[in-house]
Write a structure and sequence with these properties.
Length: 466
């Protein structure tokens, strides 16, 4: 079930809100757990049993890790927990990839594996791993109530597309959290804004991207138009989902951490990754990079640490070589920044931003391909590979159709709208009118989204591969 669907917006969510706020405090987690399992089972009921099995497995091993009398025993239990948890992700997401590449390398025929990928498995697997590791480190106590732990892992607002919520960040809220009209109103506002970003901007930009794949009238101009639109599409799609998750969490009394902070204003690729998909970047930093020594090591070890982190980051996104290449692309440039480019980038903010935006756009062309060959083809098209013309009738037609939206998306990806809102809100003369205008705009967004969805407009879900 998608947040951006009539079923979720007008059937599932209202019913959940009624059940949740009608339930007494001791039963609120039970309600959240049951509705979250229903939400997850909506598309593929069998996948629920995999998630439940993983929850029970880690519930048991969390207690064993905490109660182990020696450090060696703790390590053994943690190792079993990590291997057991990762085995599900490796099988469902990567087994087919490994078999396919084994056949290609050795020439030994092996049956193709047609394994359905459980939605959201990459996200909830990383949440479970963070719980087990934090219990091992003594940063949080093991959760003795299996309902509470299951609620954390299966919580529907962030189950499908993140953000990756760590147990230690919401442990207290799982046991005791407050609800207020003010908090709920902030959550509703955040949810509707995210919904508008996803449906009105990302989905519409996605229509242009679909037109690019369908046409034979390609040109360098169309490749760049596609590159810009796809980069903006994935930002508004993913950040829109994060906004909706954070907003829903707020309604139910949870404070999820931010997942995006205007990444396109970055002055380096390192800064970009401090602003883009923050929950994933910080997860790899705290559970992979720092345990390996981080940056406080000699240069050869630093390069190796960065290689491991970015190889895994790319591979986490999907079982295709283009995702690995995408991760290694960032490894190369982030290594160069750490070793050589930090000071040059600091000298010119304008050049630093141009450099950052240029290579971000290139990176998402690698990301957008269905395989490595297609990724190379897309990047090549940006520079006229194959002798394609500089412009084409199709590119000019699509630019006329989508140009205004692209400008709106570019401005919307910066802090400018938020700064204007905060400025007007801070002035007594305009504060009242801003409040009224905000309500009207939010209602218009909701009405427009409903019209788009009721019309059966293009509504892709970009995270099935994750």
């Amino acid at each position: 079930m998608l947040f951006s669907s009539i079923t979720f917006l007008y059937y599932f969510l209202p019913l959940v809100l009624i059940l949740y706020f009608a339930a007494p405090k001791p039963l609120k987690n039970v309600v959240l757990l049951l509705v979250s399992l229903f939400f997850y089972a909506w598309g593929e009921p069998k996948c629920v049993f995999l998630m439940l099995g993983t929850i029970i497995f880690n519930y048991v091993f969390g207690i064993l890790i905490e109660k182990a009398k020696t450090q060696q025993a703790k390590k053994i239990y943690l190792t079993i927990s990590v291997i057991g948890t990762l085995s599900g992700l490796l099988y469902f997401k990567y087994a087919g990839f490994f078999v396919e590449n084994f056949t290609a390398i050795t020439g030994i025929s092996a049956p193709a594996l047609n394994i359905a990928l459980p939605i959201g498995i990459s996200f909830y697997t990383f949440q479970i791993l963070s719980y087990s590791v934090d219990v091992y480190r003594g940063e949080v106590p093991a959760q003795k109530n299996i309902i509470t732990l299951a609620t954390y892992i299966s919580l529907f607002p962030q189950l499908i597309a993140g953000p990756i919520v760590r147990y230690k960040d919401v442990a207290a809220q799982l046991v005791k959290r407050s609800h207020s009209f003010e908090s709920a109103s902030i959550g509703i506002r955040r949810f509707i804004v995210g919904l508008g970003k996803k449906v009105l901007i990302a989905n519409t930009l996605g229509e242009l991207c679909q037109a690019f794949y369908a046409t034979q009238d390609t040109s360098v101009m169309f490749y760049w138009l596609f590159a810009v639109c796809f980069t903006l599409q994935i930002y508004f799609d993913f950040s829109g989902y994060s906004d909706m998750a954070i907003g829903l969490g707020k309604i139910f009394g949870f404070d999820f951490l931010e997942n995006f902070r205007y990444p396109f204003i970055s002055k380096s690729l390192s800064e970009f990754w401090r602003r883009w998909h923050i929950s994933l970047g910080s997860w790899f930093r705290d559970y992979v990079y720092f345990p390996m020594g981080g940056s406080r090591v000699k240069k050869p070890k630093l390069i190796f640490n960065l290689f491991v982190v970015w190889f895994l980051t790319g591979f986490w996104h999907g079982a295709e070589w283009n995702f690995v290449l995408w991760g290694l692309f960032f490894f190369v440039f982030l290594t160069l920044e750490k070793l050589f480019l930090t000071k040059p980038l600091e000298k010119s903010k304008i050049l630093a931003r141009i450099y950052t935006l240029f290579f971000i756009t290139i990176s998402f062309m690698i990301f957008s391909g269905n395989n490595a060959q297609e990724a190379f083809s897309l990047v090549g098209g940006l520079f006229g590979a194959g002798g394609i013309p500089l412009t084409s009738a199709e590119a000019l037609y699509q630019l006329r159709n989508y140009g205004v939206l692209v400008i709106i998306a570019i401005v919307g990806a910066t802090p400018l709208p938020s700064k204007i809102y905060q400025y007007l809100k801070s002035k007594k003369a305009t504060s009242f009118f801003v409040d009224i205008a905000e309500i009207i705009i939010l209602l218009l967004i909701l009405i427009s989204v409903t019209a788009f969805l009721a019309d059966g407009s293009f509504n892709p879900f970009l995270y099935f591969r994750f």
